[in-house]
């Protein structure tokens, strides 16, 4: 079952984020990873900044969380994590579909450039990487992150929004493509 998180879920959200984020250890740049990955005060700050968390619940236990945040003219998918023991069961996909169905603005997702599994997940669900220049502009416009995070992150956007707004990166000319 998918449900909106309540204040009483704070500690469980924090535990899920920090447990699942251990996957970044040794993958993302060492200066970006720390334990805990998200301290309680950072999560409180995200909630205060209107990140609205939703959860997948089974038998009274939260197994995954995903946040959604309206910023200016877009909606950001934020902090998408599933407990390690519940991964590969479609929980993230169902949370994403649920939030996507409710969004009234274009969706953007930021993640670490070296988190290949996360990028593949979002690409399978209709999102596309933006160009490096677009990524930097989008991160500066819609997120509050340090420059180092901009350097080491990517932004994915819904394919139809990229096409409609002209943000889609054109394919390289045929002469510069690598042979098949």
Q: TL;DR?
A:
The protein has helices spanning 10-20, 40-48, 91-102, 116-124, 132-142, 147-151, 159-165; strands at 2-4, 52-58, 61-71, 74-82, 107-112, 127-129, 153-158. It is α+β, with helices and mostly antiparallel strands and 180 residues long.
How many distinct domains? 1
Strand content: 25-35%
Q: Rg, please?
A: 17 Å
- Inertia-based shape: globular
CATH-defined fold name: Aminopeptidase
Please provide the count of β strands: 7
Please mark out the parts with pLDDT under 50 across 5 or more consecutive residues, or reply none.
175-180
Name of the CATH architecture: 3-Layer(aba) Sandwich
What does this structure look like?
With 180 residues, the protein is of the alpha+beta class. The chain has a single domain (2-168), classed as 3-Layer(aba) Sandwich (Aminopeptidase). It contains 7 helices and 7 strands. The chain has a 7-stranded mixed sheet with strand order 1-2-3-4-5-7-6, with helices on both faces.
Keywords for this entry:
globular, 25% strand, 7 helices, disordered C terminus, Aminopeptidase, 180 residues, alpha+beta, 7-stranded mixed sheet
């Amino acid at each position: 079952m998918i449900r909106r998180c309540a204040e009483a879920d704070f500690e469980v959200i924090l535990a899920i984020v920090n447990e699942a984020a251990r996957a970044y250890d040794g993958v993302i740049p060492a200066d970006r990873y720390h334990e805990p990955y998200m301290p309680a005060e950072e999560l409180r700050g995200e909630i205060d900044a209107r990140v609205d968390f939703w959860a997948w619940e089974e038998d009274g236990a939260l197994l995954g969380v995903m946040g959604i945040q309206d910023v200016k003219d877009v909606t950001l998918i934020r902090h998408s994590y599933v407990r390690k023991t519940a991964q590969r069961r479609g929980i993230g996909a169902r949370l994403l579909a649920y939030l996507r169905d409710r969004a009234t603005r274009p969706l953007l997702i930021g993640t670490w450039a070296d988190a290949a599994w996360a990028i593949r997940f979002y690409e399978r669900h209709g999102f596309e990487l933006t160009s490096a220049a677009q990524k930097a502009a989008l991160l500066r416009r819609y997120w509050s992150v340090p420059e180092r995070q901009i350097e080491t992150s990517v932004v994915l956007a819904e394919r139809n929004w990229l096409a409609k707004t002209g943000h889609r990166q054109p394919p390289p000319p045929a002469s510069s493509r690598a042979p098949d």
